């Protein structure tokens, strides 16, 4: 029976029975929140029902249920309730306090051994903070006085409660104990209803009985066991996801049906597609652009779902434009509510979906606020175990090895999932090696199924992938099938692209659609200006000529890519090499490694709509070698040598031999980074400094975000109004070398705006040319 307590703005508003106990400062009670957590855990158990068998633990889900029921036990303390109702800071972690109150645990009358209880301890104590963080910041600094501190917090709350009741401490203590016992009774009944087993708990009646320190210290011993560590990562991932989803009000996990339709009825399949649909193990697929690799991958995934307890698919692509296109394509197959993008600009893409027909500028402030809230919720859900199909960059996977974010959730979702790596040729050797190390870890520790595919993979890389991942299934097209993919004739030209601008302009005037690819942003910008000037006689509309590179803001680049296949002349950098679904008539390109050139060729006569071979022209020299992206000059020279007998009819069946001539001496073992092994081996313990790893990751893979100085007022306004979508519109990602060069010239202005560090680049910017590093702004102080 609840005892009525007078309300107060600065103390406990109510604390007389279990239904009064709050979990959140928004008024949600502990029972309400715990019920939602349990509901999500039931969904997760249905999704991963064979996990206990894989990890060799018959009690795996029972322990996760117990942890879920007890994870917020510490919030019962009166002192926490005072803090949460006053929305003030509580200087004790509630998850640590929860452990303090747990004694022995019994299932069906049998006492769990200490190892089992420590599993539950670990799940509970890490559902917000890492072990390292707890040890260093919350437990280590008070050392053995922790028990006295915890006891003090309980006593502090009891004294406050006694004052509110105008009663003695004994009465207040009885209320606290009654609520505690009421919660224990709720936990036992709920668990019994879930599992059919009988749970019993010892509660801590005497503070000296707590075995907190012995158990907490043993966690560190246990996580040194690699197999047990992976199991704990999985269980913590389930707990974190359930807690976060419950807090956001989401209690259902979205699933896909395995009878999804991939091919139109009556369509003739390629041999690679037929074989992929029958394989239930890892696969390496090599097939030309336009040969239906995506369909082959989905057929493989579908076949691997038949006897699986997990329907999750991770489809990895090299860049954001290709990811957004693939999301739309997969949504047509699985449904719009089941496929989501995961990349550094996810919020922008989600925002676009919510805006629908309007532009950002047309939205009212109320519409912006409402959409911002929806975007925030959707972005949060993407980070949890919720959506079944995620299309991402490889870096979204690799960041888990650097302890970024709630990595346990991601590892849990990757258990028994299917990971499809498309366009593996597009990455630097170091990135490929890191990815292979990470995939090997997933395969060995989380039973992840892997498919890697590309149009072009040198034999040296094939052998490296096969060896490291133990792949037995390598799919390639038959020679007679490859014949139908011959579509290019290659011309090697002396000089630079600058020598052919008149020729290019003439062809555009005569109705040809021309793609020009330069190796640097600066070269592309200069070529664009010259070609635009030569075509300024209004023979084609201005919007028919476009420039595309990576130094545009997100807003401007998105507009250009939206119609990227429609232009009469497109001048671009190597960003067109990957997954842009475009088809131009002819190509003029600067020299590059063969695999990169082949991808550029793939944007010409892509759909084989023309029976004759389409011409592609490679010049022998770069216009500007400053900022040259290819470190291995020998590879570029070997590539040019292949086309010395120009013109060369490019046959698909001959491409593998050509690749092997260029990359004959490559040893990928040289590019392996032993640090990644070390980081993965120290998951949970996190012996490495998290800030250093985070910095290393973003410098290596994600680039550094800058904002053109022209948008400084808009950036400040966006931060002040917390409109982080608008902030995304103005960002540009530059590599570390470029930023250091700009800093040397004092062209980067670093500011903190409302505590957020911002880099402004003091160079000219417009929506046509992008960021021009060679045009510094003169800014008056």
From TrEMBL:
SUPFAM superfamilies: HD-domain/PDEase-like (SSF109604), P-loop containing nucleoside triphosphate hydrolases (SSF52540)
Domain Helicase ATP-binding: 274-475
Occurrences of domain HD Cas3-type (ranges): 23-245
Entry keywords, A to Z: Antiviral defense, ATP-binding, Helicase, Hydrolase, Metal-binding, Nuclease, Nucleotide-binding
Record domain Helicase C-terminal: where: 500-654
Top-level lineage group: Bacteria
Family: In the N-terminal section; belongs to the CRISPR-associated nuclease Cas3-HD family. In the central section; belongs to the CRISPR-associated helicase Cas3 family.
Protein name (Swiss-Prot/TrEMBL): CRISPR-associated helicase Cas3
Source organism of the structure: Thermoanaerobacterium aotearoense SCUT27
């Amino acid at each position: 029976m609840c005892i009525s307590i007078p309300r107060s703005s600065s103390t406990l508003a109510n604390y007389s029975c279990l239904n009064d106990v709050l979990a959140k400062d928004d008024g949600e009670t502990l029972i309400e929140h715990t019920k939602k957590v349990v509901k999500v855990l039931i969904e997760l158990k249905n999704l991963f029902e064979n996990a206990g068998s894989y990890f060799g633990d018959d009690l795996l889900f029972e322990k996760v249920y117990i942890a879920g029921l007890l994870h917020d036990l510490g919030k019962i303390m009166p002192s926490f309730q005072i803090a949460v109702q006053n929305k003030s800071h509580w200087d004790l972690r509630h998850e640590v306090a929860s452990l303090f109150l747990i004694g022995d645990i019994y299932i069906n009358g049998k006492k769990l051994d200490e190892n089992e209880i420590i599993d539950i301890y670990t799940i509970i104590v890490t559902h917000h903070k890492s072990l390292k963080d707890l040890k260093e910041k919350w437990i280590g600094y008070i050392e053995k006085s922790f028990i006295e501190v915890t006891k003090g917090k309980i006593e502090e709350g009891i004294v406050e409660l006694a004052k509110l009741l105008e009663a003695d401490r004994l009465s207040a203590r009885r209320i606290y104990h009654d609520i505690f016992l009421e919660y224990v009774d709720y936990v036992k009944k709920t668990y019994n209803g879930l599992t059919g087993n009988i749970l019993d708990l010892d509660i801590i009646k005497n503070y000296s009985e707590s075995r907190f320190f012995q158990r907490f210290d043993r966690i560190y011993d246990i996580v040194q066991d690699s197999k047990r560590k992976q199991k704990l990562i999985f269980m913590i991932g389930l707990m974190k996801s359930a807690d976060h989803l419950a807090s956001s009000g989401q209690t259902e996990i979205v699933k896909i049906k395995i009878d999804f339709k991939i091919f139109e009825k009556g369509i003739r399949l390629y041999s690679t597609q037929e074989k992929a649909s029958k394989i239930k193990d890892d696969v390496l697929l090599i097939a030309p652009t336009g040969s239906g690799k995506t369909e082959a991958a989905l057929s493989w995934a579908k076949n691997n779902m038949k006897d699986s307890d997990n329907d999750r698919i991770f489809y990895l692509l090299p860049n954001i434009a290709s990811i957004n296109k693939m999301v739309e394509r997969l949504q047509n197959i699985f449904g719009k509510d089941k496929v989501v993008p995961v990349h550094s600009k996810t919020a922008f893409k989600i925002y676009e979906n919510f805006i629908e027909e309007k532009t950002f500028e047309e939205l009212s402030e109320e519409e912006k606020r409402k959409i911002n809230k929806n975007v925030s919720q959707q972005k949060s859900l993407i980070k949890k175990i919720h959506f079944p199909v995620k299309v991402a960059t490889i870096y979204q996977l690799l960041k888990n090895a650097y302890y970024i974010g709630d990595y346990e959730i991601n590892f849990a979702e990757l258990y028994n999932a299917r990971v499809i790596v498309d366009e593996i040729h597009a990455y630097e050797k170091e990135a490929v090696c890191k990815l292979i190390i990470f995939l090997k870890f997933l395969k060995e520790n989380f039973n992840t199924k892997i498919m890697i595919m590309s149009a072009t993979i040198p034999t040296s890389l094939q052998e490296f992938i096969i060896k490291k991942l133990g792949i037995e299934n390598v799919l390639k097209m038959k020679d007679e099938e490859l014949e139908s993919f011959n579509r290019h004739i290659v011309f090697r030209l002396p000089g630079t692209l600058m020598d052919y601008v008149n020729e290019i302009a003439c062809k555009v005037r005569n109705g040809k659609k021309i793609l020009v690819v330069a190796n640097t942003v600066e070269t592309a910008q200069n070529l664009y200006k010259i070609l635009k000037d030569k075509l300024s006689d209004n023979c084609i509309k201005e919007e028919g000529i476009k420039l595309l590179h990576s130094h545009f803001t997100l807003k401007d680049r998105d507009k250009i890519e939206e119609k990227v296949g429609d232009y009469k002349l497109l001048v671009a950098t190597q960003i067109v090499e990957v997954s842009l679904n475009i088809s131009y008539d002819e190509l003029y390109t600067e020299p590059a490694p063969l695999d990169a050139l082949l991808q550029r060729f793939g944007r010409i006569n892509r759909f084989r709509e023309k029976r004759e071979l389409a011409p592609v022209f490679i010049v022998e020299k770069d216009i500007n070698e400053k900022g040259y992206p290819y470190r291995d000059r020998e590879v570029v020279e070997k590539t040019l040598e292949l086309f010395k007998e120009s013109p060369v009819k490019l046959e698909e069946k001959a491409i593998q031999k050509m690749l092997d001539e260029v990359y004959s001496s490559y040893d990928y073992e040289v590019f392996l980074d032993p640090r990644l092994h070390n980081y993965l081996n120290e998951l949970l313990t996190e012996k490495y400094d998290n800030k250093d790893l985070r910095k290393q990751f973003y410098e290596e893979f994600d680039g550094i975000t800058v904002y053109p100085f022209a948008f400084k007022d808009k950036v400040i306004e966006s931060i002040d109004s917390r409109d982080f979508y608008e902030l995304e519109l103005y960002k540009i990602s530059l590599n570390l070398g470029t930023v250091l060069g700009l800093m040397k010239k004092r062209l980067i202005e670093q500011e903190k705006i409302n505590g957020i560090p911002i880099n402004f680049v003091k160079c000219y910017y417009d929506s046509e040319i992008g960021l021009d590093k060679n045009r510094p702004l003169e800014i008056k102080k």
